[in-house]
Amino acid sequence: MTTVNSVENHTTIFHIAAGLVCLWLSYRLFVFLRFFRPKSEHTLRSVAILVLGDIGRSPRMMYHAESFAENGFMTYVIGYGGSKPIPALERLPKVELRYLSEPPAILRSLPFVLLAPFKIIHQVTSILRELLIHAGEPPEYILVQNPPSIPTLAIVWLVGKIRGSKVIIDWHNLGYSILELKLPKTHLYVKIAKWFEATFGKVAYAHLFVTEAMRDFLVKEWNLVGEKVVLHDRPPKHFHRCSAQEIHDLFTKLQTPFSQYKSLQNFLPESTTPFSTPLTDRKPSSESSTATSPIPDLDPISATAPTYENVQPPRLRPDRPALVVSSTSWTPDEDFGILLDALKQYEQRARELSEANIGKKLPKILMAVTGKGPQRDEYMKEINRLQAKWHWVRCISLWLEAEDYPKFLGSADLGVSLHSSSSGRDLPMKVVDMFGCGLPVCALNFECLPELVKDGRNGLVFNNSEELFKQFELLLTSFPSSERLDALRTSLYHATRSLEVSQSSSNEQWCSWDENWNRRLKPIILRGIRV
Questions:
Q1: Which residues cross the membrane (predicted)?
Q2: What are 99-103's contacts with CB under 8 Å, separation 24+?
Q3: CA distance readout (Å), 406 to 400, 410, 516
């Protein structure tokens, strides 16, 4: 009897296990078949945004995510971690950040020839896992940035076919043109990259372009299929010129990273936070206006003081250096050597004027270069060697969090753009950010730059280091009371509020990212109900 009961128990357990296995297989089959369900059954008002890079270093795609979420879309942002994203992506309830995994550590020790295939396979499987499984319901739209083109364009094309999602390609630049910076145009790899980009990028629900030149070229060369929208980069609405109080607060916060630079010792004016910074102090205006040497700080206010009438708000100090900023990715398409040569010439000229004592003077320059990239260490090593003998120029490299970056631009006196574009058909977003912060810009000239920078109206255009140096001298002479710099800043103020920045007949006005997105892209995605 015991034996019979034991057999029955084992049979029951077997049936239960078999039932559970069948149930699990049925569920997986159901999930798999739902990938191929009719397009009309997709989840509306959802988007997956694919960034094959550091999400926090992809501002345009982060702005896209914020705009989609604010318009009621469940927004999945898929990409790599590393840098902190803009605060809105962590605040908005409809945004979900999905970070791709890096290749296992054991693979990273392999030679590049062996690592590359494994890296690509790992990358492809990671993206497919996010888009096909972790995303749950098929998204209504998949928005992908290009470049990189390989393998993302093929992946989103495939997923769009499987899940019926509408693909939107945001053309930042051309992937094959970036490869041409390293290889000849006739190289087999360049030809394959161009074929790949044209084949999988040709057909999409919508194509977004950062310039009209990019749109016109791709429409003519590749005969793109789908909606075509020029969506110029624009600054977020919170970008603005900083007040003295905001500058004071920011540089109080940056005291620690600045103190790590030995090259700044004895170069910046003396300061003691929280009463003063290298750019601001709390001296009364009558004292500040006559100061000719480092300004002593006010004594701390006593906690028992009956009133606070003598507390002065922060003011820009007259002995401050000119803060010049350049944002760069430290890549070959941005020739940092041009800026370095211009700074060498500035140092020599400022020294000559000081020794001549003829009344015309140039200020000290604090050159801050933001961003990360492969050539950073090489250039900073050369800079540190040079500035060990410099008196009038210091150059530092900074990495700023997303919330501090616009404040830093809004605190600066002059911006520099070294972007030259591998394709000649994209525009530097850094200039857009600078304009949004009321910062005049000296920009390196290239083919479609006039779509953004109007020479003499909202910035100055240079072609080489000699011209950049002359612009430094022109704008900074007699700083901080520089008439030329003030005039350019005033011109920029009017240009970014009323002047057309596009050469087309579309009569496009300068506006914030939100206004531009709502005007250009919102009508297309809101009418995109399944057909």
A1: 12-36
A2: 99/55, 100/126, 100/127, 100/130, 101/126
A3: 9, 6, 19
SS3 of the chain: helix, strand, coil, percent, to 5: 45, 15, 40
- For the chain, helix (H) and strand (E) counts, in that order, are 20, 15
DSSP string, 265-304: TTTSPP--TTTB-SSEE---HHHHTT--SPPPPPPPPPTT
Burial of 484 per CB tally in 10 Å (0-12, 13-18, 19+): middle
Each residue of 425-446: pLDDT tens digit? Answer: 888 899 999 999 999 999 999 9
Q: For residue 323, what is the enclosing H or E element?
A: strand 322-327
Contact 138, 156 (CB under 8 A): no
Q: What is the mean pLDDT of residues 48-63?
A: 93
CATH topology of domain 244-283+312-506: Rossmann fold (3.40.50)
Q: Which of 461, 457, 456, 404 is nearest to 428 (CA)?
A: 461
CB 242 within 8 A of CB 410: yes
Cis peptide before 274 (omega within 30 of 0): yes
Q: Is the pLDDT of residue 505 over 70?
A: no
- For 68-103, what is each residue's pLDDT tens digit? 999 999 999 999 998 889 989 989 999 999 999 887
* Closest of 188, 189, 194, 192 to residue 176, by C-alpha: 194
Mean pLDDT computed over every residue of the chain? 83
Structure tokens, 339: 């800026």
Strands of the 166-171 sheet, one edge to the other: 95-99, 74-80, 46-54, 141-146, 166-171, 203-209, 225-230
Q: What is the pLDDT of residue 11?
A: 41
Q: Which helix (H) or strand (E) holds 462?
A: strand 459-462
Contact by Cβ (8 Å): 166, 159: no
> Three-class SS of residue 97?
strand
Provide the H-helix boundaries in 330-387. 336-356, 376-387
Give the count of alpha carbons within 13 A of 431, CB side only: 27
Q: Is there a contact between 62 and 85 (Cβ–Cβ < 8 Å)? A: yes
Q: Residue 258 and residue 314: Cα distance in Å, rounded?
A: 19
Q: Which CATH topology does 39-234+519-526 take?
A: Rossmann fold (3.40.50)
DSSP state of 100: P
Name which of 97, 162, 152, 100 is nearest 126 in CA terms: 100
Report CA Rg, the chain: 28
Of 90, 91, 52, 96, nearest to 73 by C-alpha is 96
The phi and psi torsions of 388 (rounded to 5 degrees) equal -65, -25
Is the pLDDT at 497 greater than 80? The verdict is: no
Cis peptide before 151 (omega within 30 of 0): yes
Q: What is the pLDDT of residue 135?
A: 73
The two most distant CA atoms of the chain are separated, in Å, by 117
Give the residue extent of every domain in the chain.
39-234+519-526, 244-283+312-506
